[in-house]
Amino acid sequence: MVKLKQDPHKQTEEREKVLEVAIGREVRAYRLQQAMTVAELANLTGLSIGMLSKIENGNTSASLTTLQTLAHALSVPLTAFFRRFEEHRQAVHTKAGEGVEIERQGTRAGHHYTLLGHIGANASGVMVEPYLITLTAESDIFPAFQHGGIETIYMLEGEVVYRHSDSLYVLMPGDTLFFDADAPHGPEVLQKLPARYLSIISYPQTP
């Protein structure tokens, strides 16, 4: 006889619990948006303050009738309480050595750009691209990059002097640089090679 490693009833209970919490957060958020107290919402709906508190804290499963009453009182569609729960959340897992080697504008010999993943078309409207950049002894200095969005650099190995606009920053392992990527930027002096750093670029999704 094969024993189930996972209890399907427990999984269902856990999913329901997550749904209750998600609905509770939405109810509270819409109430606060309207500067309404729990007592005021209780008067509008005929629900007790204790019941509303349980709903907002995800401690009880509200009936559809109750949710409909809350939606009417808050002037939102019933489906508004489920939106965040139903959102598709993406995750990209790239195994070591499996990143995509790419060429970017300004790439020179000895500059290696490895795209570690890509997430776009998400609910926040933000595109995110993480790169692992390696600079070797053969690298030559290139004109500074300029592109839209925000960039975060985390230094892993080596030492470089990194330019952002008119400022220079000495980056060593463990250092982070977070900046507006629309200004000219890039490694200006390669002080200790090889140098490796993570570059995470985020920018608004174009329509």
Structural key phrases:
about 210 residues; alpha+beta; 434 Repressor (Amino-terminal Domain); Jelly Rolls; 7-stranded antiparallel beta sheet; 5 helices; 7 strands; disordered N terminus; DNA-binding transcriptional repressor PuuR; DNA binding; TransReg_Diox_bact_type
Q: Secondary structure elements and their pairing?
A:
Elements: H1 8-33, H2 38-45, H3 49-56, H4 64-74, H5 83-86, E1 100-102, E2 111-115, E3 126-135, E4 150-164, E5 167-171, E6 176-180, E7 185-204
Antiparallel strand pairs: 1-2, 2-3, 3-7, 4-5, 4-6, 4-7
Protein name: DNA-binding transcriptional repressor PuuR
InterPro entries: Cro/C1-type_HTH, Cupin_2, Lambda_DNA-bd_dom_sf, RmlC-like_jellyroll, RmlC_Cupin_sf, TransReg_Diox_bact_type
Keywords: DNA-binding
**Percent helix:** 25-40%
Q: What is the overall pLDDT average?
A: 78
Strand content: 25-35%
Structural class: alpha+beta
Descriptive notes:
- This is DNA-binding transcriptional repressor PuuR.
- InterPro entries: Cro/C1-type_HTH (IPR001387), Cupin_2 (IPR013096), Lambda_DNA-bd_dom_sf (IPR010982), RmlC-like_jellyroll (IPR014710), RmlC_Cupin_sf (IPR011051), TransReg_Diox_bact_type (IPR050807).
- There is one protein chain.
- The longest helix is centred in the N-terminal third of the chain and has 26 residues, at 8-33.
- The protein is an alpha+beta fold and 207 residues long.
- A hairpin with a 2-residue loop joins strand 4 and strand 5 (167-171).
- Strands 1, 2, 3, 4, 5, 6 and 7 form a 7-stranded antiparallel β-sheet that branches.
- It has helices at residues 8-33, 38-45, 49-56, 64-74, 83-86; strands spanning 100-102, 111-115, 126-135, 150-164, 167-171, 176-180, 185-204.
- Mean pLDDT is 78; it is low at 1-16 and 105-109.
- The protein folds into 2 domains: 9-86, lambda repressor-like DNA-binding domains (434 Repressor (Amino-terminal Domain), Orthogonal Bundle); 100-204, Sandwich (Jelly Rolls).
